[in-house]
Specification:
about 200 residues; alpha+beta; 2 domains; two-stranded antiparallel sheet; 9 strands
């Protein structure tokens, strides 16, 4: 995967269960191929640090934290809520969790220029969009994102939120670039509390 950087700042807000979810995305200078790429972080390191305590049992995520491990009540609450949400999506979409990777994948429409699909992790959903969908979204056709996500994820408030957030991000981050420069598909990691906290080229 090529990693390139661009100077831009994007603020995306989406609504989930009545909560505003901001994603402040900051990327640095342009270099290779004049294309934006990876990388951004949201303030979710504390939640992510619990990954080593997340396992899979009976096709559901479980969280088992040692009694002597110190974690704030807010971080623990967020982690438990994320796991509850992820387990619900897995059940609703009849997905199978891989116990080694701790992901549940549904990939569709694989092409030489990328794929569409989702990969559910306990603390975020990775959304794959092929080049054609990314180009369409960059040109303002946000409905293309909704159609691609809806084909992979059961229609609910979450899929609509994902489509809105990702479509807005693509339009803001890539809209100023000629669509012909977008050669590949992209992926976007969406966390329900922190918004889009990572993305890159397929």
């Amino acid at each position: 995967m090529k990693k390139n950087k661009i100077i831009t700042s994007v603020l995306i807000s989406a609504s989930l269960l009545g909560t505003t979810i901001p994603s402040s995305v900051a990327l640095a200078s342009v270099n290779q191929n004049d294309l934006p790429a990876m990388t951004t972080k949201a303030n979710n390191q504390a939640v992510n640090s619990l990954d080593k305590f997340v396992g899979v049992k009976n096709n559901q995520y479980i969280l088992e934290i040692p009694s002597d491990y110190r974690v704030s009540s807010d971080t623990l609450k967020q982690a438990k809520n994320l796991i509850t949400d992820a387990n619900k999506r897995i059940r609703e979409n009849n997905l199978i969790l891989n116990e080694k990777t701790k992901t549940a994948d549904k990939i569709i429409n694989v092409q030489s220029f990328g794929k569409n699909g989702i990969s559910i992790h306990w603390n975020y959903v990775r959304i794959y969009l092929n080049r054609n969908v990314v180009r369409a979204a960059a040109n303002g056709a946000g409905n293309a994102v909704g159609a691609a996500i809806g084909a992979a994820l059961a229609a609910n408030g979450l899929s609509a939120m994902f489509a809105t957030a990702v479509g807005a991000f693509i339009g803001s981050a890539l809209g100023s670039w000629a669509s012909s420069k977008i050669k590949n598909g992209a992926y976007f990691d969406v966390n329900y509390y922190f918004g889009i906290n990572n993305w890159g080229w397929q």
